[in-house]
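Weekly modeling sync, notes
Attendees: AB, CL, MP (scribe)

Item 1: holo prediction request
CL wants a bound-state model with 2-acetamido-2-deoxy-beta-D-glucopyranose before deciding which constructs to order. AB pointed out that an apo prediction alone won't tell us much about the pocket. Agreed to run with the ligand included and paste results into these notes for async review.

Input as submitted:
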Amino acid sequence: MLLVLFILSMSATGSSNVEEIKTQERLFLNSLGLSVRPRPSEHRQVPSVLWRMFQRSSGKDNEFLLTENDPCVVSEYGVRGNIVRFVQDQGRVVSRWSDGCPGCLEKHVFFNMSILQPVEQLSLAQLELKFHWDISGSPRFLLGPKALSVSLYHVLRSTLKGANHQANRILLLSQSIRLHPQPGWLKLDLTALAEIWRQPGRNYGLVLELQPYTLDLPDAAHDQAGNALPLGPDATLPELQASLVSVSLNPLQCHSRRKRSAVYLPVTPSTVCRPRRLYIDFRDVGWQDWIIAPQGYLANYCHGECPFPLSESLNGTNHAILQTLVHSLEPHSTPQPCCVPIRLSPVSMLYYDNNDNVVLRHYQDMVVDECGCR
Ligand SMILES: *[C@@H]1O[C@H](CO)[C@@H](O)[C@H](O)[C@H]1NC(C)=O
Ligand SMILES: *[C@@H]1O[C@H](CO)[C@@H](O)[C@H](O)[C@H]1NC(C)=O
């Protein structure tokens, strides 16, 4: 209903009060779990796993994010949730050399976890690191570094000595990965840590130390004799993509519901209460810059009379049946019951949030399937 009001006032000509439209836009954004309208500064590529999940949820089978038994499970990750975010790394490259590791590339990794609302329950935070080394353009590296020694630290505090100081960090992972010719991947469950990061002032991020070495000298990276191939200032550095996949559950937006069945809306003209076709095009509302998909959806609405005698197909309550009876006797004192949605179904949306993260979110009660007199 809110949505219909909002759309109607958006399309109303001239006379509409701008403030009122703003209020309705804000209310609708709130119902989507957003405090402000996102204004992404860049349009990041949508991770393929999110596309697959979105397409599956919008497909004919309406599998959605959900499994049949539990309405709020993200089956791809096997955890409860109705929001999947690809949180973007905001850390920067600190230096090419660090205290404990000469010749290392040192990179700060930071994920802003305050984008999660306090009500959300974090089910999973998985760090995904992708290393890609494009050495095709620099032939002198062809025989050079083809593997990477990776050390990942949790930064405990921020001091003048810096995040790379031993006392300020805890080693989470130390591993070597092959980089060439395939990109190298690392995945790490950081759910407990991400929960700490949600608390104000507790997020100092991670530090990554990367040291390339050649596969011909497998021990080179750890060789104290100085055989490790140092990174010259002009060396081609591996490209690093870091993201945190977070799956969370907003319990307020997750109740057990029947899955949507194919709904056939009769086209015969009728004044009796029933669902009417309403397609909402996000371009009409000017939201195409932050909603990735769908471009619009069939929301429908309820409209029509609830006349006496109330037939079974109008799904009237006992009270509504009685009210139509009273209305038929005294039309001026008592109105007809109202034609309202009695069954709604969900929609999933893929969008950019205000931090340019890609978010897949499951919204219940977005589509009117059935109407009734209440
Ligand atoms: C993290 O995100 C919140 C909410 O969008 C924002 O207010 C805050 O400035 C961000 N913090 C950083 C360090 O980017
Ligand atoms: C409403 O009435 C129709 C027709 O009798 C029926 O198919 C449908 O299941 C009813 N819906 C509910 C929610 O009771």
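Recorded for review: The longest strand covers residues 358-373.
Action items: CL to compare against the apo run; MP to circulate these notes.
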